[in-house]
Input
Amino acid sequence: MKDAQPKAIYLKDYRQPDYWINKTHLSFDLEEEFTIVSSSLELTRNANAAENTPLVLHGQELELVSLHLNDKELTADDYSVDDETLVIHSLQQQNTLRCVTKIKPQDNTSLEGLYRSRTMYCTQCEAEGFRKITYYLDRPDVMSEFITKISADKKRYPLLLSNGNLIESGELDAGRHYAVWHDPFKKPCYLFALVAGDLACVEDSYTTMSGRDIVLRIFVEEKDLDKCDHAMTSLKNSMKWDEDVYGREYDLDIFMVVAVDDFNMGAMENKGLNIFNTSCVLAKPETTTDAGFQRVEGVVAHEYFHNWSGNRVTCRDWFQLSLKEGFTVFRDQEFSADMGSRTVKRVEDVSLLRTMQFAEDAGPMSHQVQPDSFIEISNFYTLTIYEKGSEIVRMIHTLLGPELFRKGSDLYFQRNDGKAATIDDFISAMADASGRDFSQFMHWYKQAGTPVVKARGQYNENDQTYTLELEQKLPSSASAKPFHIPVAMGLLGEAGSLPLKLQGQQTNIETEDNTHCVVEFTDTKQRFIFEGVKEEPVPALLRGFSAPVKLQYNHTRDDLVRLMTQDDDGFCRWDASQQFAVQVIHEVMAALVLEPAPKVDERFINALRGLLADSSLDPAMVALMLQLPSEAYLAELAVTVDVDSIHHARKRVERKIAQALHDDFMRVYCDYDHDRPYRATADDIARRSLKNIALHYLMLGTDKEAISLCERQWLNATNMTDELSAFSAIVHSTKSSLEELKTKAINDFYHKWRHEALVINHWFSVQASAPGSNTLMRVKELMEHSAFDIKNPNKLRSLIGSFTMRNPINFHNAKGEGYSFLADRIIYLNTTNPQIAARLLTPLTKWKRYDENRQNLMKAELERIKVQPKLSKDVYEVVTKSLG
Output
């Protein structure tokens, strides 16, 4: 780090680079102690730059060996170099710069640039990792044609991969060999990839809509060859879906995926050579849960879709990150919805958004979807950029409808193919294709925070009208302007949805039966009047979660029951169950002050009983509606988070449900507990989800039969979903009578799966999220376990992340032991993997939301981190913003 206090970078300061790199030749000589990187850059001065403009290249942790400009060796007088830049003082209009650097991938614990993951070399260059490989213009608007030569020991590294198509390979002296790859599509260096190792391959092919045959290869360790089928199927389904829905065809002759153990992210969309975290590509029933199968499908699709929304059209600068990520998340969500249950997928995505992104919006790291500044770009790979960015694209889709949205996306790709584009370019294409004005809609990109929509309804029996009044409370900013909010809605009578007739000329998108519309809410306050309403209705608002807002409407509990049981929209049914549950939990929280076991509203219990009895409902939706709001979501709703009260009230309601519906849960469990071959289909996943939520509730009671059922499921399960569900129910049980079974389960699970790293990650996570009071001690013990590796991000997320993010009652222990534990880990990781350190910091950033005692304890740990020497930009930015 050059300065004691890193400087912010601002969107307003963007300007084009002084030089373009037309072609990039790279040569990697991989040795065990070091790697020699030789680059040859064909440079052209920007027409806007003056003749004497120096060339400023980025570089970090590089040893400069030699420099040649236009075949002349440069001396120390011709250039200057420091920890972050190489400056060439004098260049011509056209230049060839040859540079040789020495790097040590085996010492690169940041997992950015070129590094070693166990016995293989791999890269991660997004966002700014390429500067750890060679001196370069490491910015996304510099797009170049790449030719890459890799040479290495053939026995140790028989596989040599890079972007594009293989154009040459051969033998070298001393048992070495080489491969040359050419990527004909210009790309920024963040999309560069290299892999060298000894990997096995699963190969398939795909015939595109124009009749081209594409070779598909997934590279994994030999032991994991039997875990690739689902990823390959997902890849082919993604290619077909992108052709059908967006008209996008794959362009290279080969598409490759490599699975890597040590990876900071989920996966990376490098052109033609996607590098994946093993957790996002490996899947088989015995070792992978249903959620794992769905994650593989979604991530494979996401990275493939990036080939167009990210690679063929890339970002002009990192302030435009949501241009590729928000759009691509929307695309992968829609793909997953088409592959499985659309309603379940929507509920899962909204649940993540409302729990985590809304909290981000309300915290010190709040930022616009198009930020105006950052210190470290890695800190902006956030839920705001990805998930809220996706919701903005979804709103455009809602406003335009599928046909006009497709017309807009076609125009966007046509105009910007091969270019580095901006969010404005995307919106302009949508506006030009549809003829609509999106100037007000752009506030979604420019304004941080989550708007609150207050809704009120009034029924006039004489006029048979229903008036809906909407008011939006804007995020706290003097310059905040009203958002353009699409509100999808319907009206429910006693027998179900009512036909709608909206008074006036306001926008109305209707279904065939005229029971659903989208009203466009554009003012601070607005009124919508529905005519011909023959009975007092219950409004079903924000169907499908049509906008990322906090909705406030004073539904009665009877209203919520009607929404839960009658609305046509699955999201609204689920949301009503969550609202009802929140009200019940808050009621119990208040009553806990006076009595140890307050009552739980019987209407809520009866509504859940009705769900379990209705065989016509999707079991997956029933399972989702039976899950109470998480402690994290309940904390998000609170002004001041009462950790203990939230935990104990939620547990009280859960146990009451378990007690009251014991026979119903037992019936459901027995109905769905049948041996059948595993399939990762929506129907089968739904059956397992309902069975296992029933088991969860049964294990909250005292029934010995339930314990026997759970133990039997744990011992006899033929898939990881059932095995892990039973294992978690045992380990998370607070019954003293189960301590012996719990110990046996923990030991036996490890012994059975000790050779499967991804399964052992579940083993860590289940123990770290257990509610018992000795969990922190157990987490510290597990850090010393031979299976734990603090250099591996998956292990860190499974153990430390699970404890700090999924175990609030223990992490927020009033003595502050959880806080000091996390701070110690952050201080260590700051010097080894700053990116992961900054991400793990998230729980401490919310310190102002808690009581005074916890505030002081959390703030003290942040202050302790802040004064550490050599604080990385990643951690510095998060800490200073949190304290500020």
The chain is about 40% helix and 20% strand.
